[in-house]
Amino acid sequence: MRVGICIPIGERGPERRALPFAQMREFAQLTDSSGLDSIWVADHLFFRGPTDEIRGAWESMSILGALADATTTVELGPLVLCGPFRNAGMMAWAANTLDEISGGRFVLGLGAGWSEDEFRAFDFQFDRKVSLFADQLEVIVPLLRQGRVEYEGRWAKGSAELRPPGPRPKGPPIMIACSQPRMMSLTARWADRWNSVWYGLPTDEFRAERQLLVDACRAIGRDPAEIDVTVGIAIADPATTTQNGPKSIVGREDEIRQALEVWSAEGVEEVMCRLEPASLDVIERIARAASAMRAAAAAGDE
Question: What percent of the chain has pLDDT over 70?
Answer without folding.
Answer: 99
